[in-house]
Structure formats: structure tokens, C-alpha cells
Specification:
The chain is built from 5 helices and 16 strands. By secondary structure, it is of the alpha+beta class. This is Dual-specificity RNA pseudouridine synthase RluF.
């Protein structure tokens, strides 16, 4: 596409930065995104910005921090958020991936860049009315592992009930072998309290947990996923997110 300003007396800021910092175009874009570039004393962090040859360009030192090409992060999804927006008015969970929603407890050392908001896919399913741990990733390897090999990873949920759990209900809950005509993989349901269940499954499909509990005649008021594989939600507050650290593996 032809740049409408290509014939004026300005240059792309990124080109000036590559010359001053002796770096690649990609590294220049990173410096701009990180707010490390000033034009005439004013920070300019918008990619595609243009400057005149007589304007003063200043580069601040790059702070220490881990830079990740393809990031994976976890989000504590609120109820009502979808994994992908398909209808007008819906709120997608990726909308939460903004600087202001990053958990203060994030210890990854990764510097937040705008490109980390792009090309995020949900690695697995979580119902719209459920809350809790969602994995968003730019890494196809992570996405394929959690989707195609879902039976290799436990998923742990807490389920809240409208009425106290009857004594005989737990046996019914663990006896189910099919749901909606499809065989159910290994799972375990245990009692946490009169109004709360713990559900561990090795399958990821829409409304599986709710379907299992309701098939036993129980009314569900809330569902929260607290773990996928070895990655736990921990103290991540609802609506917040954090980067997965380098040593964390599912």
C-alpha cells in the first residue's frame, strides 16, 4: 500500500530510530512501543509515526527485562466474557489484556508491548457463564498441546450449588459415563462443602462440568476453573492477567 505521506518532507520515526540506535526495524518498533523514544522532548509511542528531518530524536535506555517473541498468559475470566467475540455487544476475554489489568503480582519480568495483544488464541474452552483460568497464547505449540492433547492435562473446577448436596448424590455424580450421547473421559467429583464441589476432568468441551452436575439433579449457581495441568489460578484477581513465566509448564 502506498503511504499517502511518502512524498512529503517527513520520514518514518522507526527509520530514524534504526539509524540512531543502529538496530533492526523490529527493534526500533519495540523501542517506540515501549515509550523510549522522544520527539522534541515528547514521548511518541505510536507505530507508523512520521517526523521531519529537523526534529530532535532522543532514545532512553532500554530497561532490564525479558522480551518474549510469542507470549502465553493466563486470565481470570469474569462471567459473561466470551473466548472469542462473535456477536455485536459481546465482550471477549482478550479485551482484558491491557496494561491496567495486569496483576501487580506478575513476576515474569516481561515488558508489556502492544504486539502482545495481537494474535492471541484461547487454548481450550471455558463456558461464557463460568469464571476462572483461561490460557491465551500466541504460541501455536501451546495451543495445540492444550486443545489436541487435552486428555493429558487435568482441569480442576469449583462448582457452587443452589441447595445442599444430598448424601447419595456424590455416587450419582461419579457414576456418569456418557453425556449427551458422548462418552466422558476420566473424571473425579468430590465434596468440598454442603454447597460446593470439586471437579477434576481430563477433557475440554462446552458445558461438560455443568452437564455432569446437572445430570445428577443438582442446580448449579457458579463454576470456576482454578487449574489447567500444573498451572493454577492462584491469587489472580477476577479480570486480571499475568504472563506465564519461562519455567512454568503445563
Amino acid at each position: 500500500m502506498t503511504d499517502p505521506q511518502a512524498n512529503d518532507d517527513t520520514l518514518r520515526l522507526s527509520k530514524r530510530v534504526t539509524e540512531l540506535a543502529r538496530c533492526s526495524r523490529r527493534e526500533a518498533d519495540e523501542l517506540i512501543e515501549m515509550g523510549l523514544v522522544k520527539v522534541d522532548g515528547v514521548v511518541v509511542d505510536a507505530l507508523g509515526s512520521r517526523v521531519r528531518a529537523d526534529q530532535r530524536i532522543e532514545l532512553a535506555p532500554r530497561p532490564a527485562g525479558v522480551q518474549a517473541d510469542r507470549v502465553t498468559l493466563i486470565v481470570n475470566k469474569p462471567a459473561g466474557y466470551t473466548l472469542s467475540k462473535t456477536r455485536p455487544g459481546e465482550h471477549g476475554v482478550a479485551e482484558l489484556v491491557v496494561a491496567g489489568q495486569r496483576a501487580a503480582s506478575d513476576r515474569s519480568g516481561i515488558l508489556f508491548l502492544k504486539r502482545h495483544q495481537q494474535h492471541l488464541v484461547s487454548a481450550g474452552w471455558l463456558d461464557n457463564d463460568a469464571t476462572g483460568l483461561v490460557v491465551l497464547t500466541q504460541d501455536d505449540g501451546v495451543a495445540n498441546k492444550l486443545i489436541k492433547d487435552a486428555t493429558d492435562f487435568e482441569q480442576e473446577y469449583l462448582v457452587w450449588l443452589a441447595e445442599p448436596l444430598p448424601p447419595e448424590a456424590l455416587a450419582r455424580l461419579n457414576a456418569k459415563r456418557e453425556l449427551e450421547g458422548k462418552r466422558i473421559g476420566p473424571y473425579k467429583i468430590s465434596r468440598q462443602s454442603d454447597l460446593q464441589l470439586r471437579v477434576v476432568v481430563r477433557q475440554n468441551r462446552p458445558r461438560l462440568v455443568r452437564g455432569l452436575v446437572e445430570a445428577a439433579g443438582l442446580n448449579v449457581t457458579a463454576i470456576k476453573r482454578i487449574r489447567v495441568g500444573r498451572i493454577a489460578l492462584g491469587d489472580l484477581a477476577e479480570g486480571q492477567w499475568r504472563y506465564l513465566r519461562e519455567f512454568e509448564r503445563f
